[in-house]
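Hey, does this match?
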Amino acid sequence: MKFARQEKVAKEPTELNRVVEDAIAIVDHQLTINGVRIERNLAERLPAFLGSANQIQQVLMNFMINAQQALDGKPGTVTVSTRRLNPRQVE
């Protein structure tokens, strides 16, 4: 509903790895019961950035659930990675 209403999002200092871990915590059970393992490859000491943790978390959850659905009931692994691109950028 928030997406449909196009709410103005306040950007706040955000820690990417924390957002990733929170997203994984929400979808882990669903993926596990469907035979999908989540592999983390998270870079250490990433700088905070200005963004919306809620929006990024929603995107990550959608990616992981879509990956599980694409496996069509077969077991598999979803890998979630973070890294520092340069002193001011993370992905």
